[in-house]
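Standup notes
- DV: blocked on the single-chain target, sequence here:
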Amino acid sequence: MVDERTSMKLGGVLLGFVGVITLTGCTTTKQSITESTTPSSNRATTESSASTNTVVASEKMPSEFIPTGVTITHSIDVTDGYQVGYTSHQSFDELKQYYTGLAGWTVSAEFATADTQTISLERADQRAAIAITTSGGTATVLVTGSFVKE
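- DV (later): unblocked, structure below
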């Protein structure tokens, strides 16, 4: 016959074991989803890693929109577009020069608010708005793009 303390210990061990299995399954699922939706060309650039849970850029976004040395903070795919955010230690002027110099893209507008400057780019099949906010030597960039439908 099992006494009450032994029963409680066994219950605790069983509960702990179930928790470990659940957490392991969630981590593996998240890693698999991230890897299956990440193009191989972006994996090298963003250094996706299951151990650090690094966010990778949307496969819908042109790879030229991510300069080297940035940390991607979020990435969202929608039916006809994407949104990717990242941080960088580049200045606004460096980022502006980078985006306005992209081959095949035309600057269609530039505008600013008190703390954010936005560059609108377009080409035949796609439009993108790049919003850049700088503070204390760090730039936060939000790239929002959509595909042109005829």
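- Follow-up: The helical segments are 4-36, 40-46, 92-100.
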